[in-house]
């Protein structure tokens, strides 16, 4: 699947900090994160939904909400960093 450069460069409404020390700022960051997930995580429905939203080039608000949910469900959303942002 080829994503348009404009879509990949689209910024999320607000960044998503992860517990691995990374922060997802744009669709391209989400794409890299989702495609780099271990199989044990990528099989969950919430990550499959995020992947489908990427394939559909969904709007960034919807994509961000789904990725936030998936990170939260995996206990990988850095809530403390979100509070300080």
Given as residue ranges, the uncertain stretches (5+ residues, pLDDT < 50) are none
Please outline the major beta sheet: 2 strands, antiparallel
Would you count the extended β strands for me? 2
How confident is the prediction overall: mean pLDDT?
Answer: 94
> How are strands sequenced across the largest beta sheet?
1-2
Helix content: 55-70%
Rough outline: globular
Q: Output the helix-strand order.
A: HEEHHHHH
| Rg, nearest Å | 12 Å
What structural class do you assign from the helix and strand content?
A: alpha+beta
- Tally of individual helices: 6
Q: Please give the alpha-carbon distance between the first and last residues.
A: 33 Å
Count of spatially separate domains: 1
What is this structure, in a nutshell?
By secondary structure, this protein is an alpha+beta fold. The protein has helices at 5-9, 27-35, 39-42, 45-55, 60-73, 79-84, and strands at residues 11-17, 23-26.
Can you tag this structure with a few keywords?
alpha+beta, two-stranded antiparallel sheet, 58% helix
Q: Could you characterize what this model shows?
A:
This protein is an alpha+beta fold and 85 residues long. It has one domain (13-84). The chain is built from 6 helices and 2 strands, in the order αββααααα. It has a two-stranded antiparallel ribbon with strand order 1-2. A hairpin with a 5-residue loop joins β1 (11-17) and β2 (23-26). α2 packs across α4 (45-55) and α4 (45-55) packs antiparallel against α5. The longest helix has 14 residues, at 60-73. It is globular. The termini are far apart. The mean pLDDT is 94.
């Amino acid at each position: 699947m080829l994503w348009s450069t404009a879509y990949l460069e689209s910024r999320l409404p607000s960044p998503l900090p992860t517990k691995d020390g990374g922060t997802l700022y744009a669709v391209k960051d989400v794409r890299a994160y989702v495609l780099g997930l271990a199989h044990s995580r990528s099989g969950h429905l919430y990550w499959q939904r995020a992947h489908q939203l990427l394939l559909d080039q969904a709007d960034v608000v919807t994509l961000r909400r789904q990725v936030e949910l998936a990170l939260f469900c995996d206990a990988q959303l850095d809530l403390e960093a979100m509070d300080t942002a």
